[in-house]
Amino acid sequence: LNRVIEDSYQLLRSTLEPSVALELKLDPALPPMLGDALLLQQIVVNLVQEVRDRLGAGGTLRISTRVEKQKGVPDEAGGDPQALASLDLEVSASVPHEPRQAPGLARSEPLPDRAGLALTMAEDIVRAHGGFLVSGPEASPATLRAMFPIDQLEETPLIVPEEAAARGHETILVVDDEPGLRMLAKTGLQKRGFQVITAENGQQALEVLRNGESAVDLVVLDLSMPGLSGERVLRAIRGFKPELPVIIASGYATVESQTSWNAAGAQGFVAKPYRIQDVAGKVRDVLDRAHGRVP
């Protein structure tokens, strides 16, 4: 877990305002745990996304790990008294903030419906690793805490069997103005064998495609970006590369909007914030269909 956090430092740093301090306090005695490194990274990224709006200018986000012995852990997290790995995110805001999370949330209770999508997804991944999330007074002084079992590694589920993961060798252009999600998509797709080019806005994406220096096989296109919107970029791509597969990524989708994107020439859709295995699966599916490998 410590290695995942250390490897994610630059990614996390890029998602925060320059005036916000990011501190790591990682327990060197933390035992190893069995899990999918990319999914663990996604937990960290999503939890940071959830708390970053609570940071004022000049605030501090402290990420720490430690070993904690607890009794009375919910059955889904292991049952008997055991050692748990604790991942804490502590916010020190320089200006008052209004937390979106309802106070007093017990660790055994599900997160409220109004929790952000990033937090809901993080909770799902934590639970899949046999753990649970803590927030409210029980997490204090942390704002959010993720707990993972570490003393029965053979019982920890294998979350994403490598043989079941969608893989490929094609070149993917990822277009997203959020550095964290852009890096997460790049890292996750590269791990699965794809070649990845990134662009932080629509104009950059069109330049990459028009220059033709790299033969792009598919585009993963964020819909909501400053400057050229994803829909305008999609229509521009259709003007000079009508056969290039495009997958739309958006956190705001209705049946009408997806119909509109399909009419504009999109071949697929993934909801944000996304699981990297879902993106890889959609990429593989769209590429296979484009090449007639799926009936």
UniProtKB/TrEMBL annotation:
InterPro entries: Bact_response_regulator, CheY-like_superfamily, HATPase_C_sf, Sig_transdc_resp-reg_receiver
Keyword Phosphoprotein attributed: yes
Keyword Repeat: no
Cross-referenced PROSITE patterns: RESPONSE_REGULATORY
4-aspartylphosphate PTM positions: D222
Transmembrane segments: none
Swiss-Prot/TrEMBL GO biological process terms: phosphorelay signal transduction system
The Response regulatory domain, residue ranges: 171-287
Keywords, sorted A to Z: Phosphoprotein
Descriptive protein name: Response regulator
